[in-house]
Amino acid sequence: SGWRRDYEPFELAENMEEDLGLFEAATHAHGMDLQPIHVGNVLAATAFGAECLDFARVAAGRLSVGLVNDATSKTASSILSSAMRSDAGLVVVPGGIGSDVLSALVDGDGMHASLAIAVVSGKGSTALDAMLLPLFDDEPAARTGLAWACTLAAAAGPQGLVAAVELSSPTTRQQARRLAGDAHDPEEVRRASVGRAVSARLGSLVAALQKHALSRGYAVRVSFHPGWPRREILNALTSLARSATVILGRDGLPAAQGHGPAFRLALELVEERAEAVLIV
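Request: output the structure for the sequence above.
Response:
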């Protein structure tokens, strides 16, 4: 589970299976344009703690939008109503908000499906320079997360970073087992095959990320982590050696891995190591 190797996508590597995956990613990647993020305003729900206000203030400045400080709303419904009145597309809450309220905020209803929720531990404003983006498949949730990551990293300027963490879904692990077959060293082949499958499935996203970063002047790192997502995300945060915001899709990473709802994983990450988690 500790096996991993950072790489620059689409370059030659020592492992043949990964080379094939990178080649497939490059040749089969569909061109995609990042969708612009329209936030309106940023709402800080400080009734649960004012420590999230600094993060909200910096986020509003980076996104060039207004900041609304709601120090009275203490229920999910009142926060959502406040966000609607304030034309807010991002709500920032402290890590101590509680699972029931955060669950209702994230689940919401159809009217709030595009509302992003940031869960912040401490001040967390320095976490807005670097984005850690877990990726499984090229799907709508992943594309939304990518758009947020690129928007915030570009707004951070030269110190901006998107660290994309390629993770293996049940589908890619099953595909790898089929590829390994009766190989002499099935475990090693399986690991390489997972990397190949993941690289091929994420080619369009990685290509769009690199293109955007090149045009906007921020840094990109891409690494493949084959272990269980929660552990690998925490490992990736440690290896960054800097503050970062983890970006999770409502219907992406947690559901695909059986970790339960996105809000639960967000709270676990904030409790353990993450300074901020953005659920989009």
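Confidence is low (pLDDT under 50) at residues 1-26, 254-258.
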